[in-house]
Amino acid sequence: MYGLLDLSLAGYILVTFILTQITIAAVTLYLHRNQAHKAVELHPVISHFFRLWLWLTTGQNTKAWAAIHRKHHARCETAEDPHSPQILGLRKVLSEGAELYQKEAKNQETLRKYGHGTPDDWIENKLYTPYTYVGVVLMLAIDLVLFGIPGLTIWAIEMMWIPIMAAGIINGVGHYYGYRNFECPDAATNILPLGLLIGGEELHNNHHTFATSAKFSVKWYEFDIGWGYLKLLSWVKLARVNRVAPKLVREPSRQQIDMATLTAIVNNRFQVMAQYSREVVKPIWKAERAKAEVAMAELLKRARRGLFRDERLLKGIDKERLQKALAENEMLRNVQEFRERLQQLWQNASLSREELVAALRKWCEEAEATGIRGLEEFARSLRGVVPQTA
Predict the structure, then answer these.
(1) Do 45 and 176 fall within a single domain?
(2) What is the CB neighbour count within 10 angstroms for residue 223?
(3) What pLDDT digit, counting tens, does each position of 2-50 carry?
(4) In which element (H, E) is residue 362 found?
(5) In angstroms, rounded to a whole number, what is the distance separating the alpha carbons of residues 50 and 25?
(6) For 224, phi and psi rounded to 5 degrees?
(7) 209 and 333 share a domain?
(8) d(CA 226, CA 230)
(9) One domain for residues 235 and 268
């Protein structure tokens, strides 16, 4: 019954947890942050270890995984997205996440268009790719030798871990339920602020907002264990971080709006718009709702989602509620119009940079003249935004 290692029940549980966490680390550090987004460089020793481990525990092909994930970002929440719960339904992605990957992995156009820059060496072409199931069978043998009959359960959990936790929960729940720090143009959410169990991938809205950032946490209360792994690997010279999310930097004494101001605002547009929602829209929405009569207060309550969500993600009923609330409330209508005008600074490709700087100056001047306190203070704060220095 027992293998080379005779453990207690707690010992088997601990071993299973450690093994599955190594697999999650391989997915988030190697497949995701290194291969798909090039946000980090890994030492060849680490890369090859992760490739071998993934072959043993998932049979996953690096090129296919990176290609499918890149396509997911490029075509997110459309009919071409390989695994969008907004299109396919949450139940399907949760229950058939691995099958959706396997189906898309057979799409040669996806591999050709999105699979560039992934391993193309002898071991990939002669072993890992053509013999995907040999690795998982070998892992079964290793688990049986080490742990005996309990090894079968350990192996089964290893095989289910990525299909359930990554292909199911991250791709499913991570585009359906949770909170959003930023209004990125897709439905990605942060499932939990503590990214411990799924390698930091729980912070999915942060990742979709800053896709090429090696660090997924952005708020002080968020934790990305994958980033902790990277810091440790960097400390021992086995990894190098290429990019992290930009930071919004201000010089309060600076009042001149120029090309540097425009560049800094455009580069930090998600943080700027999150601040606008937090410091302008939310306080005004609360104040207007507090002083409104019962019917109007209820309408403003129902319109909340539309006020804070990216308009492209709003469904019919939310759009209707937003339009009705704006038609009935001049204050909210004004701040909504100013938000739309501000977004035009990075959405309008027909204007020259000089024209955009002029438009920003005009926006700030008019916002400061509205008499709306939160909007005035926000406009003044934009004047101090400066490019981030290394």
Answers:
(1) yes
(2) 18
(3) 788 889 999 999 999 999 999 999 999 999 999 999 999 999 999 999 9
(4) helix 353-368
(5) 8
(6) -115, 100
(7) no
(8) 6
(9) no
CA distance 101 to 192: 24
| 196 SS3 class | coil
Asked whether residue 3 is domain-assigned, the answer is no
Count structural domains, the chain. Answer: 2
**Residue 2 lies inside a defined structural domain of this protein:** no
Boundaries of domain holding 275: 250-386
| Residues 220, 319 within the same domain | no
Contact partners, residue 364, CB within 8 Å, separation at least 6: 257, 379, 380, 382, 383
Can you give the pTM of this predicted structure? 0.92
Q: Which residues of 75-84 are buried (b: 16+ CB within 10 A; e: fewer)?
A: bbbeeebbbb
Burial 367-389, CB ≥16 within 10 A → b, else e: bbeeebebbbebbebbbbbeeee
pLDDT tens-digit profile of 162-208? 888 888 899 999 999 999 999 998 999 999 999 999 999 999 999 99
**Measured between alpha carbons, how far is 59 from 134 in angstroms, rounded to an integer?**
8
Residues 171 and 237 both lie in one domain: yes
Round the CA-based radius of gyration of the chain to a whole number and report it. 24
Burial (Cβ within 10 Å: 0-12, 13-18, ≥19) of residue 237:
exposed
Same domain? 115 vs 21: yes
| CB-count exposure of residue 194 (10 Å: 0-12, 13-18, 19+) | middle
Domain end call among 179, 213, 241: 241
Show the tokens assigned to 151.
Answer: 């090894």
End-to-end distance of the chain based on CA atoms, in angstroms? 58
Q: Are residues 217 and 69 in the same domain?
A: yes
| 8 Å CB contact between 209 and 270 | yes
Percent of the chain past pLDDT 90, that is, above it, reads 72
With respect to residue 29, please indicate whether it lies within any of the assigned structural domains. Answer: yes
Last residue of a domain, one of 222, 241, 260: 241
Q: Is the same domain home to 53 and 173?
A: yes
| Residue 1 placed within a domain | no
